[in-house]
Design goal:
Layout: H1 2-17, H2 24-27, H3 36-41, E1 50-63, E2 66-73, E3 91-96, E4 110-125, E5 128-142
Length: 164
């Protein structure tokens, strides 16, 4: 009997670990045909559309109880988690109406956001003026920092024996 409970609990834990970051009910509201490449060309055209975006937090600022987050866009995997890749089509801003602690939502963390396109915000980015698409989040998921753990394996070829 204990073995059966253990197997059931293990299966439930495994399935919950594989669940997408954003609920299915919320995802139904998103325009799955809209890509970030289209959005960044003309954010005003897609104002009011819902879409899922993700990436790596670059910076955040808290003003009057609101939080503005700059995110480097990354393609999403099947779980809606930003992929570990150098591929990015640009940056976007997330405008949270409430305080989000900058120590938790820190640069380098991955985030996935389902939100409504608010339009664009033009800000300086180093030596250029950059047009950021702005999302108002409906639902978001901050991913846990990845840790290196578990067994490591080394496969190599030794030639000539030990060096003294």
């Amino acid at each position: 009997m204990r073995k059966q409970h253990f197997l059931t609990f293990s299966l439930l834990a495994l399935l919950s670990a594989c669940a997408p970051a954003i609920s299915k009910q919320s995802l139904r509201k998103a325009d799955a045909s809209l890509t970030f490449q289209e959005l960044i060309k003309d954010p005003e055209r897609y104002k009011g559309k819902m879409m899922a975006l993700g990436g790596e937090i670059i910076s955040n600022a808290v003003r009057e109880g609101e939080t503005w987050m700059e995110v480097l866009q990354r393609p999403l995997n099947w779980q809606l988690k930003p992929k570990d890749t150098d591929l990015s089509y640009g940056r976007f801003l997330v405008h949270f109406a409430e305080f989000r602690d900058p120590a938790v939502y820190a640069p380098g963390r991955k985030i996935t956001v389902l939100g409504k396109v608010q339009g664009k915000k033009i800000l300086p980015l180093q030596e250029i003026i950059y047009s950021y698409p702005v999302l108002i989040p409906y639902e978001s998921h901050l991913w846990k920092p990845e840790t290196w753990g578990g067994p490591f394996f080394y496969l190599g070829i030794e030639v000539g024996g030990m060096i003294r």
